Amino acid sequence: MAKFAVIKEHIYRKIESGEWPEYHPVSSENELSEQFSVSRMTARRALQELAEEGLVTRTRGSGTFVAPLKSQSALLTIRNIADEIRMRNHKHHAVVRVLERVVAPNAVASALQLSPGAEVFHSVITHFENGHAVQIEDRYVNPNLVPQYLEQDFVEHTPHEYLCEVTPLTEASHLIEAVLPTEQQLSWLALENPEPCLQIQRRTWCRDGVVSQATLTHPGSRFRLGGHMTFKAPARVSNAEV
Amino acid sequence: MAKFAVIKEHIYRKIESGEWPEYHPVSSENELSEQFSVSRMTARRALQELAEEGLVTRTRGSGTFVAPLKSQSALLTIRNIADEIRMRNHKHHAVVRVLERVVAPNAVASALQLSPGAEVFHSVITHFENGHAVQIEDRYVNPNLVPQYLEQDFVEHTPHEYLCEVTPLTEASHLIEAVLPTEQQLSWLALENPEPCLQIQRRTWCRDGVVSQATLTHPGSRFRLGGHMTFKAPARVSNAEV
DNA sequence: AACTTGCTAATGTATATACAACATAGCAAA
DNA sequence: TTTGCTATGTTGTATATACATTAGCAAGTT
Question: Which of A47, A71, A235, B96: disulfide with A16, CB 3.0–4.6 Å?
């Protein structure tokens, strides 16, 4: 095993065993280089990688300390619906239900960080997989950042594909819930009877501000969201509900 | 700006602009150290950090190459329900509905990687927030890995808290969907009328195998799942539906 | 044609050193 | 008591160097 890995193991065990609790100081680079008879750069690498993995925190001038326990996060892949369908070797097509310029509802204006009463672009598109509706994409777009949104052909390319080209995005947030569809949504999904729907609300940012807010509604019977995660540092999980 | 950061910027621009497409070779450590008049170690750091961020791939003996585009993932925080409730300064309590040793249903046996007909532990617990039911935790546990599961008091500590202590976990996978609750679930949630529920299926691993499978059912009206992500490298997002 | 050998270039690990930037404690002066 | 300075220790950046390990290619051998 590489020397830096030996040092990592050593510190890792101290933390996992509980011998070093939260905020406990970790031996400095110089101390470690003496203890293990390695150069400071090698000891440094061990500490740095532990810091990247979130097990310790380092502050220049002060030292290295065992990181506080964190609640664990899970990695969920949320992909472009069109790509997902094509990946299953199924046929995708889209129907544009709404494409307009409207005065933003208050909730939308605040979500897009615009003043109340501002005008925004609004699109509603139904996505089909092998002829069955699997998603309503109800989207409001910031016209200042994407002025030519309304002129696009969203049957050819999804709004996402266009937005990705125009605005390099830097952030996104999601809210997932289970809802009963409205009458309007029911008809857009071509569903006979009401059924639970998985609804994802998504807001996206680029450097200059909020780009768009989308509400994605999926029939529960035709959609699932999958995710997988691996823990680098199992001992550090405090309160993940697992 | 630090020298290694200058080099990173340089390569980053080449990739973002499209000048260097997927799999395009990146200047070697030695080339970069000449071009930028820095030591090889400094050029190396730039390439290494780019590799950690997923923009390039490196293979010893061969070289450094622009990484293929990847679909983007979102980071969802899925926390311990008890902690989440307490964080809102609300009151949490749990009611144990089922705690038994049963022959595993086929689906469960295969999920836990046990032979059909094997016996497993089974618990069902309802979690309350300020007196309102917010989650049914229906869990099957591998008895080989957690032999004393049935002897625990899950009113005091959630199954998660116990499992975390006993088995340091290394992996987890999730499946999220919207469903209508069964009659049984309806009564466990003390709901008058059926309403859409957000259902999370979770499987967890430790080093030695599958630890447990849990089905978490939340009334849609009382639960939302939130997540937030930041992109380190916006240009590399290919098909995230954003 | 198939296999082997050896060379070259690239990344991976490790060392020794120097200086910069920052945090903190302790001490001195106001 | 408060303010400000300094000494010391710690992490951050950078350099020059050496050797190990691996991939890919080319020449030679069977």
Answer: A235
Q: Is A238 helix (H, G, I), strand (E, B) or coil?
A: coil
Domains identified in chain A and CATH numbers:
3-71 (1.10.10.10), 81-222 (3.40.1410.10)
Q: Which residues of B touch A158 (CB under 8 A)?
A: 241
Cα dihedral B148, B151, B156, B157 in deg (nearest 10): 20
A60/B contact by beta carbon, under 8 A: no
- Chain A contact present for B168, CB below 8 A: yes
| Buried-exposed string A24-40: b where 16+ CB fall within 10 A, e elsewhere | eebbebeebbeebebee
Q: Phi/psi at B50 (nearest 5 deg)?
A: -60, -35
**B54 CA to C9 C1' distance (Å):** 24
Listed in sequence order, the DSSP H helices in B39-189 are 40-52, 81-87, 106-111, 159-166, 183-188
Confidence of residue A26 (pLDDT cuts 50, 70, 90): very high
Give the count of beta carbons closer than 10 Å to the beta carbon of residue A231: 19
Question: For residue A184, what are the CA distances in angstroms to A158, B29, B136?
Answer: 21, 59, 31
The complex's ipTM works out to 0.78
| pLDDT tens digits, one per residue of A140-159 | 999 999 999 999 999 989 99
Q: How confident is the model at residue B232 (pLDDT cuts 50, 70, 90)?
A: low
One-letter amino acid at B18 equals G
Give the bases of strand C that a protein CB approaches within 7 Å. Answer: 9-18, 20-24
Q: How far is CA A156 from the centre of its chain?
A: 26
Q: Collect all residues with Cβ–Cβ distance below 8 Å to A187 and sequence separation of at least 6.
A: none
Q: Please state the separation of Cα A222 from the chain's center in Å.
A: 22
What integer pLDDT is reported at residue B240 of this predicted model?
Answer: 43
Strand D nucleotides where any atom sits below 7 Å of a protein CB: 9-18, 20-24
Q: Which DSSP category does B118 fall into?
A: -
Rounded to whole angstroms, the Cα distance separating B202 from B177 reads 12
**Strand C and B48 CB separated by under 7 Å:** yes
Rounded Cα distance between A92 and A77, Å, is 20
pLDDT at A1 over 50: yes
Running DSSP on this structure, what letter comes out for residue A52?
A: H
Between residues B242 and B107, which one has the greater pLDDT? B107
Cα angle B129, A216, A95; round to 5: 160
Confidence band (pLDDT; 50, 70, 90) for B233?
low
